[in-house]
Input
Amino acid sequence: MTMSDPTLSVRVADQYFEDYILNSEFTFTVTGYAQVQIGQPVAQWPVAPVEPYLKNYGIDSEEFCNYREGGDGTVLVAWLGEDPVGHVVISKHWNGFAHIDELAVDTAARRNGIARKLLDVAQFWSRKHNLPGITLETQNNNLAACRLYENYGFVVGGVDYLRYRAIDPATEEAAIFWYLLFDDSVGS
Output
């Protein structure tokens, strides 16, 4: 299945969103922790390898209920035929950008252009709301996500190596803040 397949569609989340979350798998394999080099391609970031393990941040469908009830955000679900396979949660952020609170694709449906399609719809939503760009956070242990955002046109705006230390004082996990700017004058 590719992005051009007509059976791939994106719709606003409905009453079945919680069932979709509960019946989907969003884990990814961690193989190392990157040392982010702002301004350098992800492929050039040094990576400290680790014994591979599965990572799951856990997705709570209730966390985003208020987005589905209107306001300054929305939850959009990607469907492959009759099967929900991914979602994006997007909102107006305090800093004036659109903020992707969450983007996830079920493991069985990955590598089919679904995440890119969700980013296309998030960009459409952001432009429709006259926002200057999109921001999101991922981590230095999710290199597939980093490559996706970089290939889509996002740039790294900052890195926080302390963000997860309260959860695990010994963690090597760092937050990477990505930005997709619609107008080159933003931030100039």
About this structure: The chain has one domain: 8-181. The chain has four helices and nine strands. Strands lie at 8-12, 28-34, 47-55, 73-80, 83-92, 98-105, 133-139, 155-160, 175-181. The first helix runs from residue 17 to 22.
